[in-house]
Amino acid sequence: MTTPSAKALVPFVSVDNMMRLIHHIGIQDMLRDLASYIEADFKRWELFDKTPRVASHSDVGVIELMPTSDGEAYGFKYVNGHPKNTSEGLQTVTAFGLLADVYTGYPVLLTEMTILTALRTAATSAMAAKYLAPKGSSTMAMIGNGAQSEFQSLAMQAICGIDTIRLYDKDPAATDKCAANLAHTGLTVVKCATPEEAIEGAHILTTCTADKQNATILTDNMVGAGVHINAIGGDCPGKTELASGILTRSDIFVEYPPQTRVEGEIQQMSPDHPVTELWEVITGAAQGRSGSRQITLFDSVGFAIEDFSALRYVRDKIKDTPFHYDLDLLADPDDPRDVFGMLMRADQS
Amino acid sequence: MTTPSAKALVPFVSVDNMMRLIHHIGIQDMLRDLASYIEADFKRWELFDKTPRVASHSDVGVIELMPTSDGEAYGFKYVNGHPKNTSEGLQTVTAFGLLADVYTGYPVLLTEMTILTALRTAATSAMAAKYLAPKGSSTMAMIGNGAQSEFQSLAMQAICGIDTIRLYDKDPAATDKCAANLAHTGLTVVKCATPEEAIEGAHILTTCTADKQNATILTDNMVGAGVHINAIGGDCPGKTELASGILTRSDIFVEYPPQTRVEGEIQQMSPDHPVTELWEVITGAAQGRSGSRQITLFDSVGFAIEDFSALRYVRDKIKDTPFHYDLDLLADPDDPRDVFGMLMRADQS
Predict the structure, then answer these.
(1) If you average pLDDT over every residue of chain B, what do you get?
(2) Contact criterion met (CB < 8 Å) for A96 and B147
(3) What's the domain of life for this entry (chains A, B) (predicted)?
(4) How far is the CA of A329 from the CAs of A4, A321, A341, B156, B279, in angstroms?
(5) Quick one: how far is CA B208 from the chain centroid?
(6) C-beta atoms of A74 and B56 within 8 A
(7) How confident is the model at residue B237, as a pLDDT?
(8) Catalytic amino acids of A?
(9) What is the C-alpha separation between B149 and B36, in angstroms, rounded?
C-alpha cells in the first residue's frame, strides 16, 4: 500500500532483540558500558532538564513517566510498579522507553526497558559503590533475591571486584533461584538462613525487597562501622527497608533530592536531613567515602537520567546490528501540510 | 528463539493501519464516533486524574507527554510541536499514544497518533460547536488551511450540519490544497483572498494558523454579534491568534483552565478572567449559548482526556480487524522473579 519514508520509521528493540543484544555484547561488558554511560551523564548532571517522575497512583500500583533531556536528545521511560502482580504471574515492574531528537521532536528509538532497567539499576548501584564502598570490598550481602538480585551481583562483580555474594530472602525458593542463576559466573555464592547471617563479613549490604509497607529489612544493630549500604528496594511513598537509626548514623547519597525525599529511605527523616547528591561526588565537588569507619548509604530510587543513559547506549549499540526493526510510527506526508491528502491517497493505492 | 506469552505482547497500530482503519470505518463516521467517545468522557470529567501536560522546551520546539486516567485505564500521548519543521519537509506535530490497564500496569495498546490527533482535535471542536454555535449554523470560515483544516471542515459537516466552508490562508497554495481535498465531500468550498472575505456570513469562525508569535488573525472589528469562534491554533505560551478585544466581548469556554491559562488565547487576559469549563456545559451544570447575539469562544488547546477517548476508541474498534499487529514490548518470564533466568535461557535456545 503506502511506503513510509525513512523519517517516518522508528527503530524498535523488542524484548527478544534486547536479549540478543545483551548476549551479543556480553552481560558483564554491557553492565560496564552502561555504568560508563551513566557516569558520563552524572558528570554533566547540571545541564539536564530534571523533573520528579510523573506518577498516576491507584489502590494496587503506580504508572509513571520519567522524562529528561540534555538539550540534544530527549528520553522518557514508561514504568509501572504493581507489587501484587507477582502473585498473579505478572511482572511487578514492566517498562519501555523512547529517545527523540530535540531539534525535530521526532522519535529515534523505541525499546523494551523491563530488562534494560534491570541492567541500568545494577550498573548505577555498582557505579555508586565504586565511589562509596570501602576500598578492597570483596563480599556483598544480597537481601531480597528477586528479579533484580542477579543483575546487582554481576554488576558489583564486573565494576567493583566483588567475588562473594551472601544471599538471603524470606522465601528460600527465591534464594535457590538466585543461587542457581549465579552458579557459573565465577562468584562464590553463599545461601544464608537469616539477614544476620547474610551480612556477616560483608562490605556492601544491598537491600532489594518488594515489601510495600514500611519494613525494617536491616535493623540498627545489624549495621556495623565501615560498610556501604546500597538500598534500592525503597522506591515509593510508604516503602522503606531500613531502620531510621541506620540513616542517622550514615552519610547519605542520593540521585535527585526532590524525588528521593518523597520515595526513598529518607522519607523517614525530616525534609532537611542532610544528603549529598551523587553527581557531586563523581565530579569531585563533594566527598564520597572519607574514612574506614564511615557508613555510606546510597538511597537509590532510580532517576530518569539513568534511563536516558541506557537509551543512549542502546541507540549507539544497535547500529550495524540486526537487533532492531523499524516501526511505521510517524505519519510523513510528502507535503507536511497535507496529512489529509496522504490519508485519502492511501485509500486509492 | 523465545516465544513471548500473550501477556507480553502489545497490539500496535501503525500509520498504515490507522489509515486503513479510518477508511474501513469511514472518516465521517469515525469523526462522529470520536465525538461521542469524547463527549462521554467530558460527562465524567470529574473522575479523571488530570494534570497539565509535561513539557520539555527547546529553542526550536517542545516535546510533551499528556497523561490521564479514569481509574480503569491509563493513557498518555507523546507529541512534539516544532513550527520550523514544515520548512524542512517534516511535520510540525507528530504523536503516538499508549493505553494501559490500571490494575496491572501493563500496556494494552500502542498507536500512531499523528493522524488520530488530527481527527480527535476536529471531533472535539465540532462537539463543542454542537453546544456553543448558533442554531442552524451552515457556514464556517476556516482561517489557516494547513494540516488540520480538512479534518475541521469534515467534522463540522458531520456533527454540526455545516454545508459551506470559506477558506483563507496567507499562502494561497495551502488554500488550493485544502479546496482540492474537500472537492468531493459534499461541502460547498469558497476560496477567499482575505480573512475579511472568509468570515462574511459565517456562523462559525475557526482559526488554525501555525504562527509562533502572538498574532492577530482576527481583529476586534472583524467579529460581529452571534458567532461562535473555534480557536485552535493558539496552543503554547506566546502563541495566540485573537485580538484581546474579542476575548473581552466573548463568553469563553475552555477544556482545563490550569493548562489553557498558560497556553490558550486567555494567556492575554488576567489570571482570573472568567471562563466556563466545557464539561460543565455538557453535563448541564453551566450554560452554553444563551442568546442570538452572544459571541461564544472555544479557546481550545487540546487536553489529555481527548486523547484518552481516542485511545479507548481505537482499542475498541481494532478488535476483530486486521489493522494491528503485536509488539514484543514486555518481558514476561514464566517466573516473574526470574528475569535473569529468562535472559540466560534465551542464549541457549
Answers:
(1) 93
(2) no
(3) Bacteria
(4) 10, 21, 18, 28, 32
(5) 12
(6) yes
(7) 72
(8) 235
(9) 21
Q: Count helices and strands (H / E) in chain A.
A: 11, 15
pLDDT for residue B211: 66
In angstroms, rounded to a whole number, what is the distance separating the alpha carbons of residues B237 and B229?
20
pLDDT in tens, B146-189: 989 999 999 999 999 999 999 999 999 999 999 999 999 999 99
Instruction: Return the CA Rg of chain A.
Output: 21
Is the predicted pLDDT of residue B349 greater than 60, yes or no?
Answer: no
Cell, residue B277: 469549563
Could you report the per-residue pLDDT of A205-233, keeping only the tens digit for each? 999 987 666 678 888 888 989 999 999 97
Instruction: Choose, from B33, B235, B299, B307, the residue flagged as catalytic.
Output: B235
Strands B62-69 and B54-57, by their bridges, are antiparallel
Show residues of chain A in contact with B142, CB under 8 Å. none
- C-alpha grid cell for residue A272? 532537611
| Dist CA B153 CA B147 (whole Å) | 11
Q: Residues of A with CB below 8 A from B153's CB?
A: none
C-alpha cell at B61: 520546539
Quick one: cell of A304?
A: 530518569
Question: A124 Cβ partners below 8 Å, 6+ apart?
Answer: A35, A38, A300, A302, A306
Lowest mean pLDDT among A1-15, A267-281, B127-141, B324-338: A1-15
The CA distance from A211 to A220, in Å, is: 19
Q: With contact defined as beta carbons under 8 Å apart, do B34 and B123 qualify?
A: yes
Quote ipTM for the complex.
0.91
CA atoms within 13 A on the CB side of A261: 13
pLDDT-derived band at A194, boundaries 50, 70, 90: very high
List the domains of chain B with CATH numbers: 6-115+305-331 (3.30.1780.10), 134-302 (3.40.50.720)
Task: State how far the Cα of B298 lies from the Cα of B275, in Å rounded to an integer.
Answer: 10
